[in-house]
Design brief:
Blueprint (H helix, E strand, L loop, with lengths): L1 E7 L13 H13 L10 H7 L4 E5 L2 H9 L6 E3 L18 H14 L4 H21 L5 E5 L1 H13 L3 E4 L9 E6 L3
Parallel strand pairs: 1-4, 2-3, 2-4
Antiparallel strand pairs: 1-6, 5-6
Helix pairs in contact: 5-6
Length: about 190
């Protein structure tokens, strides 16, 4: 049985509270992109067990992912911006909203706005290419992608379209989230 584990980074050392303007949300996103992990963040044992036998690791080049690799005691074979999260593109509005609402609006806009169709296609192309790399790497042993929740969802969908099936994991809604996919060896 071939195995691929998709991992979301650990909790970021940046929190936003209160209501943010459109401009303040943009500042938050920029700060989030350069932030590392919270000092106290430690991976759950269940995740470490999933990664104990991985032979190949792909990773995003984001600081929070690099720190996640270190806390998981993993070395990435490939670190690339192609495995980065798609940046949230929030709609301009005069409303002041909490971060989670801005993120929800940005993700919805990214998924459905005709103006962002090319960016959406680019994200799907990157996820498909990542799925192909992971599938090829898994021929020599279990493979993993350490990256971001939203991008990992696209990679999981691309792998499912290629015959991979979910075997375990809570998904990517929270930091340290993961999904293990399996496929019968040919």
């Amino acid at each position: 049985m071939r195995k691929i584990v998709l991992v979301r980074h650990g909790p970021v050392a940046l929190k936003a509270t209160g209501l943010l303007s459109f401009e303040a949300f943009g500042v938050f996103v920029d700060a989030y992109e350069s932030a590392g992990l919270a000092e106290s963040a430690r991976p759950p044992e269940s995740l470490s067990k999933q990664l104990a036998d991985v032979a190949a690791v792909l990773a995003s080049d984001a600081p929070r992912v690099r720190e996640t690799l270190a806390r998981l005691d993993l070395r990435a074979d490939v670190v690339a911006p192609d495995f980065r999260e798609a940046p949230p593109v929030a709609p301009r509005t005069s409303l002041r909203l909490p971060v989670f609402a801005w993120l929800a609006l940005a993700r919805a806009r990214g998924e459905f706005s005709p103006a962002l169709a090319e960016a959406r296609h680019g994200l799907r192309r990157r996820a498909g290419a990542c799925a192909e790399r992971l599938a090829a790497a898994s021929e020599s042993g279990p493979a993993a992608l350490v990256g971001h929740g939203w991008f990992n969802r696209y990679v999981a969908a691309a792998l499912a379209a290629r015959g991979w099936r979910k075997a375990d994991g809570p998904g990517f809604a929270h930091p340290w989230g993961y999904l293990r996919l399996e496929r019968r060896a040919r």
